[in-house]
Amino acid sequence: MAYSHYILVCGGTACESSSSKKIYENLKIEAKALGVADEVQIVQTGCFGFCEKGPIVKVLPEDSFYVNVVPDDAHEIIAEQIVKGREVPRLLYDKNRKSTEEVSDIPFYKKQIRIVLRNCGVINPESIEEYIARDGYLALEKALFEMTPEQIVQEVKDSGLRGRGGAGFPTGLKWEAGLKAQGDVKYVVCNADEGDPGAYMDRSTIEGDPHSILEAMTICGKAIGSHHGFIYIRAEYPLAVHRLEVAIKQATEKGLLGKNILGSKFDFDIEIRLGAGAFVCGEETALLRSIEGMRGMPTPKPPFPAQAGLWGKPTIINNVETWANIPVILTKGASWYNKIGDADSKGTKVFALTGKIANSGLVEVPMGTTLREIIFEIGGGIKNGKKFKGVQTGGPSGGIISEKELDTPIDYGALVRMGSMMGSGGMIVMDEDDCVVDIAKFYMEFCVDESCGKCSPCRIGTRQMYSILEKLSRGNGTMQDLQKLEDIGSAMKACSLCALGQSAPNPTLSTLKKFHDEYIAHVQDKKCPAGKCKHLLTFFITEKCIGCGACARQCPANCISGEIKTRHVIDQTKCLKCGACERTCKFHAIEKK
């Protein structure tokens, strides 16, 4: 059936939590009520990426880009655009958009190249037909009928693709090791255990394009001689799990999974395994132990999984973003792919841009793009006119990058040289109100909770570093404590069993190096320059006070006194530094320093 219009409604987790499903349902109801149900196809897609402006609704062919849509807007969209043929200006992202401009011209999208996210926000992720219509499973057909296993592996090697989940090991070399490994039984594993604070790239990729993961894993199975795959995904991602289940069922029914795929005599099945949310299970050996039904704890390497992984058999494990690149590499060719990026790192990288940023969301940019371009051009700069302070890349495993490093092109080597890492792609932006000691403490507390406890450098080191950071945030630290942080961190990096322990000190060590003066202020001046560490704050009442007594009534320590209509005072010996007085005062008469 030919439709006059297509309406795409963001169906990612973030927008679903903001009633996008109700928007979708209301659009269907309104189209039927206004007699245009046969003229418009309404589709719930995956994430559009521009999360700051969600829920998003896009109408084709006009390319109308509606933002911050609510369920009650459905009637106006149908009545105006579908029935009367005119846009709804108040909902448009750019109310002055020229007819020749497309959504891709929006500053948020302008510098992006969407390879991994190519189908997100474009197709119905629960429709295999829509995936096939956009060249889906063409790469699998090519791998099955036109290429030998060696040729598949060589194409991946020639592309320059590196693993997108951590340190960036060359994907083709890993597959080659799997191909050469001896054994009748081999496994292919997708690591979808995305546990970094602020990271949601893999979840959104699965929610918007699950078939790309299935296709890539099957291609790998053909390349290395495996007939069974596992997708390890945390149970906290119910929408992603549901869409994987639907995709596996559809692919099996179409003969694209299971026995004798497309009549090629090649068999490949995929199973889903749910994780319980342990961050350490993002480490490949811990993940494999969890799939086996054991406690998720890392094991020493070598042997590497490609030689002895799942149940002791050769296993290739890549993360979601890595897999999503594979079909494009085979259909468009390695030479096309490796022209994107820079000499050190090929292709694109997806980042979850969050924190004190004007335009939060998922961005996919060519390797070699600078942090300044991502934060100030794509991300729109810092919220509320605040000053940029730093950006955390790589989550708890990464480090903080300072303002003077903003023009460094992003690739694997550059980030390591700056004391951080690519990681899975979390990018948390901080402004002048953020305290680096508090940030380091937050990440170290996370690592304390998530350490499996198997090796003492990580088990003891994370707790000791957290204890020192807590001491600093209370104003009880010494200069010797700063040296202890460096000594313990260096020992952990050298001696911990897995990447969690080896990288846990990174946020602390990077801030110690780049924001040393701020640590000194906590130690010598007993002050937090950012005003974040509450034990180092002093609340005082200014001359703006009118003596209304609201602050005194809210104070849990009863430390505020004064007569009505006269300036009140705070007894500093009793003050809990909770900030209740500051939040209560309508006249902004209470300040902190």
What's a concise summary of this model?
The protein is an alpha/beta fold and 593 residues long.
Structure description:
By secondary structure, the protein is α/β, with parallel strands linked by helices. The chain is built from 24 helices and 17 strands. A 5-stranded mixed beta sheet has the order 10-9-13-11-12. The protein starts with a strand and ends with a strand.
Keywords:
593 residues, alpha/beta, five-stranded mixed β-sheet, four-stranded mixed β-sheet, 24 helices
- Going across the biggest sheet, name each strand in turn: 10-9-13-11-12
Mean pLDDT across all residues, rounded?
Answer: 94
Tell me about the largest β-sheet.
Answer: 5 strands, mixed
Distance between the termini: 67 Å
Helix content: 25-40%
Number of helices: 24
Oligomer state of the chains in this structure = single chain
Rounded to the nearest angstrom, the radius of gyration is 27 Å
- Our estimate of the beta-strand percent is 5-15%
Describe the global form.
Answer: globular
SSE layout:
Elements lengths: L4 E6 L2 H4 L3 H14 L6 E6 L11 E4 L3 E3 L7 H10 L23 H4 L17 H6 L4 H8 L3 H11 L11 H10 L6 E6 L8 H8 L1 H15 L3 E7 L3 H16 L15 E7 L8 H8 L23 E5 H13 L1 H4 L10 E8 L5 E6 L4 H8 L9 E6 L6 E3 L9 H6 L8 E6 L4 H15 L5 H18 L5 H17 L3 H5 L2 H9 L1 H10 L13 E3 L8 H5 L5 E2 L7 E2 L9 H5 L5 E3 L1
